[in-house]
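We were asked to recover a plausible sequence for a given structure. The inputs and outputs are reproduced exactly as logged, with field labels preserved.

PROBLEM: sequence recovery
POSITIONS: 600
GIVEN STRUCTURE:
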């Protein structure tokens, strides 16, 4: 019987290894640009042909490579960046595995030209497939140029999996952006197409300037600084959001990474000011001790493992939440005419905010006078259960305090104008506005006194459940009671096969409204037998459900006084420009915009 275990040929082994590092033009570009960064380049120019399918060229003005080292650069596991095992736990360079050029040249035709500034002549190295590279002297400028052509020329099975030129170019642009944002002090230039069309040319500058160059001035003008000992960068205000996470740029010690923990922390830090299933624009770098993060878990070096994952999650979430809480206090929450969420139109500068008087949403969804509000603790008093990580001081938007209701559209939207003039008017979604106020009141009660104020029903409401609903409700009763309900079992429910429950008390803001459907929804939120959702997220969803059921739903005429009362209440809550689900509540129109439309 012949032996079945065989040693792979060097050619096949090289192609297998290359597959872990190089799977498309974008992965080649990533490795080459990271080498340029590690070389201390202050200028990097990337040229692509056919989206990188035909050619990728990266030219930098970095330190260059000596003639002796140039050929070694194509030997697998040859590197200048680490030498002993302990170096793996103190990595501060982008590359360290010594695989990039070896992997790329095993599946493409590569020409490297390099010269150190102190050398009279440079070196050119040509490599293709598994043949030994050729080395010669070259009169190249200082720095390094790497040109990669005919990717996967010797692996047709891999070649056929490449997508269209446009799709591969898009992937390359994504890589270029990630590295460009991480290195704003380095000039970054991207050229593409047969006519060498300049796509991006960003000079050295600050991170905000780099974002303006690449993402546009509209986004740059809406950035919020995130600056803590553990996370630094920018996140855009919540009115800028996207359906995919492609504009969420996350880094660990300057290294672009894809990490579910970081993404979850950022989304949770946004809390209720961004719609569910939407993602913010953000460029955020997590600062950790290199010894506390493992970047050597995948050859592509885009995945990491944290020593204390929970600490990282909490630190990132708190940093994002704190930054956006400042936005909530500053009033940057009003949409201008022509703008919409994520469409490239952005709000004007915010007005200053100040403290408001007292007032809350009453049972009918309007403001009642004389009811005291408790100010939640400030940023220093972070409550771990609060979605977004912080509870912030109640403040008022002076523009909302100055508005007067002048009309209503379809029983759903208020029209308001400033009592001080100024040539502008606002449209307010009355359900979203009342819902935000009710949600903030419920959240204050939950995290403040840990029980929502309730009101006994004169006649208990009867709720019949299915067996599944009954099981969920019995599990969740204790938490539901903290929301201001009193619910007790009341025998079987023959028609549905489950149990009957009596609702004896409801939260103040639900008085006079049917609570049966809310109870069933809350049971589903809290039961979560598989533990797939964090408790704080389930609590947050429960508070939003109660808030939504407690306020104006559908068309409802409001008097001028009722409309103004709602505006005054809205003025006292943070994130007044968004409902708890992240949808916009207020939109501004200026006189100049109206006159321009009518060509006056």
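RECOVERED SEQUENCE:
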């Amino acid at each position: 019987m012949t032996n079945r275990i065989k040693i792979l040929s060097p050619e096949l082994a090289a192609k297998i290894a290359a597959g872990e590092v190089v799977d498309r033009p974008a992965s080649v570009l990533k490795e080459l640009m990271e080498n340029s960064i590690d070389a201390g380049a202050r200028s990097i120019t990337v040229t692509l042909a056919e989206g990188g399918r035909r050619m990728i060229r990266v030219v930098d003005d970095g330190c260059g490579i000596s003639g002796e080292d140039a050929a070694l650069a194509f030997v697998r596991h040859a590197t200048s960046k680490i030498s002993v095992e302990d170096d793996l736990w103190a990595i501060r360079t982008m590359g360290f595995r010594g695989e990039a050029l070896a992997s790329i040249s095993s599946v493409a035709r590569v020409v490297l030209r390099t010269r150190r500034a102190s050398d009279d002549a440079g070196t050119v190295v040509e490599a293709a497939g598994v043949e030994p590279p050729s080395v010669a002297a070259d009169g190249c400028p200082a720095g390094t140029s790497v040109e990669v052509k005919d990717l996967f020329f010797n692996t047709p099975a891999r070649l056929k999996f490449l997508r269209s030129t446009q799709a591969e170019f898009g992937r390359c642009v994504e890589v270029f952006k990630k590295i460009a944002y991480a290195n704003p002090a380095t000039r970054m230039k991207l050229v593409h197409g047969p006519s060498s069309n300049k796509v991006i040319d960003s000079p050295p500058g600050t991170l905000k300037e780099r974002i303006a160059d690449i993402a546009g001035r509209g986004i740059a003008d809406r950035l919020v600084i995130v600056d803590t000992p553990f996370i630094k960068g920018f996140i855009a205000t919540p009115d800028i959001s996207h359906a995919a996470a492609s504009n969420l740029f996350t880094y660990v010690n300057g290294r672009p990474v894809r990490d579910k923990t970081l993404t979850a922390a950022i989304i949770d830090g946004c809390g209720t000011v961004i719609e569910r299933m939407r993602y913010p624009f953000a460029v955020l770098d997590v600062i950790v001790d290199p010894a506390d993060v493992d970047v050597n878990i995948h050859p592509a070096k885009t995945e990491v493992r944290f020593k204390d994952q929970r600490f990282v999650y909490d630190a990132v979430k708190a940093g994002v939440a704190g930054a956006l809480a400042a936005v909530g206090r500053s009033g940057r929450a009003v949409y201008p005419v022509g703008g919409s969420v994520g469409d490239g139109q952005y709000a004007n500068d915010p007005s200053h905010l100040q403290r408001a008087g007292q007032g809350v949403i009453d049972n009918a969804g309007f403001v009642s006078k004389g009811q005291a509000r408790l100010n939640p603790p400030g940023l220093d008093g972070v409550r771990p259960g609060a979605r977004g990580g912080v509870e912030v001081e109640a403040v008022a938007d002076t523009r909302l305090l100055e508005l007067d209701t002048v009309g209503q559209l379809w029983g759903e939207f208020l029209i308001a104008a400033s009592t001080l003039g100024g040539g502008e008017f606002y449209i307010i979604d009355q359900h979203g506005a009342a819902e935000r106020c009710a949600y903030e009141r419920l959240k204050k009660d939950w995290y403040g006194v840990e029980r929502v104020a309730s009101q006994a029903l004169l006649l208990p409401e009867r709720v019949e459940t299915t067996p599944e609903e009954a099981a969920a409700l019995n599990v969740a009763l204790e938490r539901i009671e903290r929301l201001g309900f009193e619910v007790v079992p009341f025998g079987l429910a023959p028609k549905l096969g489950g149990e009957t429950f009596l609702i004896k008390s409801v939260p103040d803001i639900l008085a006079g409204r049917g609570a049966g459907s809310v109870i069933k929804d809350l049971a589903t939120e809290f039961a979560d037998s598989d533990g797939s959702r964090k408790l704080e997220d389930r609590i947050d969803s429960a508070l939003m459900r109660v808030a939504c059921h407690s306020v104006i739903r559908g068309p409802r005429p409001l008097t001028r006084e009722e409309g103004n009362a709602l505006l005054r209440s809205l003025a006292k809550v943070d994130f007044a420009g968004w409902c708890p689900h992240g949808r916009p509540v207020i939109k501004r129109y200026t006189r100049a915009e109206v006159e321009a439309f009518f060509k006056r």
